[in-house]
Amino acid sequence: MRRTLVRRTVLTASAVSLALLTSACGSGGSDDKAGDKAEEKPSASAAAPSAAPAAKGKSDAETAALLVTQADLKDQIVSAQGAAGAAAVPAEVDNAACKPLSQVQTAQKVGAPTGFGRTSAKAKPQELPAGASAEDKLKAGLLALGGDQTLITVASYDGKGAEDAFASVKAAGAACSGGYTVTYEGDKTKLDSVTSAPVRARDEAVHYTVVMDLGDGEKSTGHLVAVRKGNALATFYTFGTAAKFPGDLVDLQLTKLG
């Protein structure tokens, strides 16, 4: 029996895309170059150079505009409503150190961003012939619901806010490697382990595989990714029957960050 947290992330995040799925089944950094002149030594009376201004974060509207869209992902169903549904009610964790992981898993804000946006992406199902039966359509829809789905967030911060938010996710991965328990609406779900996995580095990046105990001997492995690029933080959580690391999606989203 799948626990409530899984129903929340899988069913709630997929609720909007289910109608789309069933209908679809029925249709046929560059290097700086040194200058030629040697740097002149400043005179004793020269004013000290001013410090670089602190980074300013973007607004919600500006940040949300940087998210991947349906136009970017032709082979996936993109749904902001799916991600909003997953984030509707925060989950509680038994270890406060693990909270940033839970926030990424449920498309929540990490830290205090000035701007924030979230969406979800799920692979489209294979199209069925025009004459497919209602039973075939239903089976295809249910199979598609078990496919990989990724919750995506992008957040913008003032100053070093993105660095601090990233550091909290990285620290949580180390502190919670032995697992943690999440409580949602009174139902407890055990996360068995959090394991570091390879990821291509940008300014900073982490990738964790998270094993969830679904009960009745069932396990589910998800991929949790956080990447900092300047004063922006992008997070990804991919889950499904046999979830795979969303490398292409991560690369595309980071490209849109500029």
UniProtKB/TrEMBL annotation:
Residues 26-57 are annotated as: Disordered. Residues 1-19 form the signal peptide. Residues 43-56 have a biased composition (Low complexity). Keywords: Signal. It comes from the Bacteria. Residues 30-42 have a biased composition (Basic and acidic residues). This is Lipoprotein.
